[in-house]
């Protein structure tokens, strides 16, 4: 099996460059320059090896049969193309990643829809600088002060209440 001749880069460098973070631009440029250098070095050689003029060698080499033997060995020479052993693994990884990406996109769209609902709710409220304590209690019943049903001590934060148990400090046990 003959190797395909590389006519152009199969990589869309502009699209790839758009995805590279700014702190990795130098590494990306170094990688691209190495890739371009390799491509130029491959393209400088002809696609097929030049023809050997065996008749010239037969007239110059004094040992009989030596050129014929070299010609026979050269014609029999087959350089194997390395077998592709990883494409199936790459394809399976790509399929797995596509499933994960679709799942992430679906979850993200659900989060976006939920956040849009919350945003719509917040925009429907009276602005906080115009809100009264009663408006706040109506909008956020669990967070508003309720001196009748849930009396609290000033400054009305959880840490200052009588029944508060600190989660940060472990109990001493004595």
Properties at a glance:
174 residues, 6 helices
Helix-strand category? mainly alpha
**Rg (C-alpha, Å):** 38 Å
Major β-sheet annotation: none
Q: Would you report the number of β strands?
A: 0
The averaged pLDDT comes out at 85
What portion of residues is helical?
Answer: 40-55%
- Which word captures the global form? rod-shaped
Question: Can you put this structure into words, describing what you see?
Answer:
The chain is mainly alpha-helical. 51% of the residues lie in helices and 0% in strands. The longest helix has 38 residues, at 87-124. The mean pLDDT is 85.
Helix/strand layout:
Elements: H1 13-19, H2 25-43, H3 54-60, H4 66-76, H5 87-124, H6 133-139
State the gist of this model.
This protein has 174 residues and is mostly helical. The protein contains 6 helices and no strands. Helices cover 51% and strands 0% of the residues.
């Amino acid at each position: 099996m003959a190797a395909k001749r590389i006519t152009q880069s199969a990589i869309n460098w502009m699209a790839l460059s758009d995805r590279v973070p700014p702190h990795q631009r130098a590494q990306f440029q170094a990688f691209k320059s190495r890739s371009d250098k390799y491509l130029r070095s491959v393209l400088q050689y002809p696609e097929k090896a030049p023809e050997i003029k065996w008749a010239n060698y037969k007239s110059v080499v004094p040992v009989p049969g030596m050129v014929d033997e070299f010609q026979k060995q050269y014609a029999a020479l087959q350089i194997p193309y390395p077998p592709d052993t990883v494409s199936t693994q790459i394809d399976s990884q790509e399929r797995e990643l596509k499933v994960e990406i679709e799942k992430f996109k679906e979850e993200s769209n659900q989060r976006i829809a939920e956040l849009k609902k919350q945003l719509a709710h917040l925009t429907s409220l009276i602005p906080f600088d115009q809100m009264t304590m009663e408006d706040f209690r109506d909008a956020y019943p669990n967070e508003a002060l309720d001196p009748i049903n849930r009396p609290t001590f000033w400054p009305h934060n959880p840490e200052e209440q009588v029944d508060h148990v600190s989660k940060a400090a472990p109990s001493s046990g004595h």
